[in-house]
Amino acid sequence: MKVSKTGQRIRTIAKKELIEFARDWRTILAILVIPLLLFPVLFILFPVLLESEAEERDLMELNIEIKTNLDSSEFETYFENSKLNIMYSSLQDENLSFISEGETDELRSLTIDAILKLEKSNSTFIYSLFYLSTSEQSLESRSRILLILEEWEKVEVETRIEGAGLDIEETLDPIRYDGQYLANDVATKGEQSGMILSLFIPLVLSVWTFTSAIQPSIDMTVAEKERGTLEALLGLPCSRRELLLGKWLAVGTITAIGVALQIAGLLFAITYLASTNLFSLPSLSALSLFLLFIAVLLFAIMVVAIELAIAIRSHSVKEAGSILGPAVLFILFPALFSQVINLDNIESFWFAIPVVNVLLALRELLMDRVVFDHIFIWISTSLIYAAAAAIYASRQFKREDLVTSIS
Amino acid sequence: MVEILLTVRNVSKQFGDLRVLNSVDLDIQKGEIIGLVGSNGAGKTTLLRLLSGVYLPSEGEIRFENGESIEKARQRIGVVPESTGLYSRLTAWENIRYHSRLYGVSDEFAWRRTSQLASPLGMTDSLARHTKGFSRGMRQKTALLRALAHSPHLLLLDEPTAGLDITSARTLKKLILKLKEEGGTVVYSTHQLAEAEQICTRIVIIHNGDIRGNGTVKDILEATQQTTLEGAYVHLTKDDARPRFEAEEKSTKISSWWRQLFTGKLPPTVRGVDESE
Question: CA A334 to CA A350: how far, in whole Å?
Fold first, then answer.
């Protein structure tokens, strides 16, 4: 027999936790498969779905009513090819903004998708448009009618300008931009992509790091208490610190795999979008990539230690869940807040605030801005916070009341 | 010559205001089977947890042979807690191997030892099965195999036969007796006086945190002037037994008030009956 060393014991604990975790397919699905598919679904499938829905809407034949005393030949050509079935009726002596009960019923029962009331006062056409905002068909009818009216108005304006002997372009566009808006941006496409990604990747990464660690943290600590497996473990020749480190390693590995899969899904989605010219790959230096990894790692060390400490401190799985679930707000709010902070000439103290420091670091690095003052501050403060969290977790693991029944 | 394996000197254990064990003195000799007998809440499990190093004494000290502390001697102790503590998503063998590895024992050694012991317990075919569907008896047997796989010098068993059917309990008791024949030392907590009388070489009666009796059945009967162990037990534990405690949660005023807000009152008729009685 040989006595195992600390490292071996930590590895044994972590390995067992990972094996147990891997044998629960529901947890695997929730923590590993979902993050992998999240971004591809969001960036690829969702736009495809939106596009097909839009196509379907374009093909819809819709019923509208036009109430007017004008001769329809004045405007009906604009309604051609609009897939609108038009029912004409005369406008009674009424205020244009008035809608009768019968008309309301027609719109609510979807018999008619929109009602356009139109009249002419001197040389001005005046209209009102009634629709049901809770109906897709009605909204689509409204949007088609507004497009037609816009087109009609454009023709009418041009005709009147010409009639007055003026040049259309000079009259309508007297101050003109010379050049192309996008081409005049000196930021490269890669930098622009980095800017866009920096607005949501820190948020998603931080929230996911926190949420993906909740379930394994609870399962490996307070659930062990409830199942009675912890007592057997505490009697073994391994220290509480080894126990904490083994469990921390396991939760950290699961979280890291979840985050890595999420990044893989994100890269796949970005590469797909880049191939369709909708988006470019962000231009990041090797140093930025390395620092991004360090930032996420330090954040994960702190988060996992805090979650393990809270979970082991709880009296039941239910209690741990009801504390750690809402605790995600402590990540979400700083994450949302840090999105609106202006990074140009930012004060250094922001990089010392817990959670905010890592989120701002991620934002800067995704924009490929390597500011050494900021890096020094967020790395040193993150190390302090991670160490404090680890000490707190270690204290919780040393509590004697981990096994509570006294008999 | 009597060889002392473990010495418990003036050990007390306090949780908040609750003194669970009072100045316990106990010497455990090599080759003994000691039965810790007592009611729920007597302090048996607390004493076993102190012996296994899960708890530290509030007062006094516990020393293994050669003056070693429990922390250092854990390597030579095997524990079966009341809950058995098996991982349901692991097989019986994986459960055993996990603990063996933490004891620093090679997989080969643990497997050889487990194979030898599993056969008389009828567990050989179940070693590859996940413990999720195991009966209480199979769980106890697996936990026992797990506690023995590293060849401990001292085996601590907390209510090992609780909830077992007669056959399983008998098999388990046979194995414990066999361990004694091989020179093993066992500390065994139980409610069952008959069981303790049957297999233990010495009985320690614990009541409300105090050791009230300590010796062979004959010693206890003589000391109490009783003819049966049951009579002796009743004689030694005349005062009311305290209830089994859960470690008290620190309750703030707000949480007490909140809990009270959603706590109903007893129906008036029941209260009336109680009062009239």
Answer: 11
